[in-house]
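for the recovery benchmark. tokens below, seq after
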């Protein structure tokens, strides 16, 4: 989103919490201000239990927030975009009040946190997501009511916000990526790919199903099969699942460029059962023309058509569909071409994001 707005000629500044897993990418044509102390520090959560803010909300050290506020004051923004409910508290402290605000809803966080509570695997996750499920619902409602406009990633999410705040403009701006160079041809190697943050409970749930239920069936039909998993912060429990796999599974954690993995993959398999918003992993695979085998949840909100992805409901059907992609060149090539065409014509940033994004921005600015 920020790159699209900057390319349109607007001056942009991005403020975000400094994450515990590394620095932001430096390849930006706009200033990026990081505020120290991301919300993940458990030592600070005891005091937050008595607060009304979500436990996982980004707040920041007072000194860092004051420094960022001075930078923003000098920037003199005309519009504030809040990207997540858990960033709202930080945004209000940094930019103050009175400016028009766009809520960029990557998910319906109220639904997402209910899912996260349901799929939590450790006592720590059950407690924190359990507390946050109710707090996020309150905060999301407050943010939606204060916003000058809302950006939703799918029509389904947009309908939710239209019910909550019927007086507020809601625009659908789907998740997407810039169009990568088209591949010369689909890989013939029996390699499967899964990409995602590995500390995110819906991804943990999906990858566990893939490794323990789907992959053994595929391995029986194709013993040479290999699964490449690309993602950071895999918990010990997930590492144990990977190590116990009957088939070869390789975990890649420090990856700067996903393109080589997509170019080597024959198929992307996504047994998503929970989570919110729309799944960028699907769009990314389609952009590279890699056949996608997935559950209905993985393509929810995209309007993916028959023949553009292989959508299956059960672990066994996912496995059978993946085997067909591995062994049937005609079927695999058809999926590859259809998915790439769908991305280029309907799902890319150029075709699906720029126009509604800039229209929403101008509408919010006109309400000053």
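predicted aa per position
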């Amino acid at each position: 989103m920020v790159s699209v707005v900057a390319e349109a000629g607007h001056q942009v500044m991005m403020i975000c919490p400094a994450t515990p897993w590394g620095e932001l990418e430096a390849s930006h044509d706009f200033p990026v201000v990081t505020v120290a102390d991301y919300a993940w520090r458990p030592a600070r959560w005891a005091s937050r239990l008595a607060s009304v803010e979500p436990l996982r909300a980004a707040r920041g050290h007072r000194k860092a927030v004051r420094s960022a506020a001075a930078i923003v004051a000098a920037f003199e923004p005309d519009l504030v975009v809040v990207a997540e409910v858990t960033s709202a508290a930080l945004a209000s402290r940094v930019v103050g009040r009175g400016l028009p605000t766009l809520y960029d809803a990557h998910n319906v966080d109220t639904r997402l946190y209910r899912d996260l509570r349901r799929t939590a695997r450790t006592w720590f996750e059950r407690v924190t997501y359990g507390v946050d499920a109710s707090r996020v619902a309150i905060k999301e409602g407050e943010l939606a009511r204060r916003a000058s406009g809302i950006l939703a990633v799918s029509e389904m999410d947009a309908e939710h916000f239209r019910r909550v705040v019927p007086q507020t403009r809601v625009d659908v701006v789907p998740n997407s990526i810039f169009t990568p160079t088209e591949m010369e041809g689909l890989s013939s190697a029996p390699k499967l790919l899964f990409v995602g943050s590995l500390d995110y409970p819906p991804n943990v749930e999906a990858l566990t199903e893939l490794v323990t239920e789907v992959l053994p069936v595929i391995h029986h039909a194709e013993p040479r099969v290999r699964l490449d998993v690309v993602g950071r912060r895999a918990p010990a429990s997930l590492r144990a699942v990977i190590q116990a796999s009957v088939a070869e599974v390789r975990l890649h954690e420090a990856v700067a460029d996903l393109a080589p993995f997509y170019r080597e993959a024959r198929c992307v398999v996504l047994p998503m059962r929970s989570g919110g918003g729309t799944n960028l992993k699907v769009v990314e695979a389609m952009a590279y023309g890699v056949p996608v085998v997935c559950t209905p949840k993985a393509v929810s909100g995209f309007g993916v058509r028959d023949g553009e992805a292989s959508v299956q409901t059960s672990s066994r059907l996912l496995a059978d569909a993946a085997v067909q992609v591995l062994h049937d060149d005609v079927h695999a090539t058809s999926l590859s071409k259809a998915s790439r065409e769908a991305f280029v014509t309907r799902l890319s940033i150029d075709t699906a994001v720029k126009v509604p994004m800039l229209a929403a921005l101008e509408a919010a600015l006109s309400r000053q």
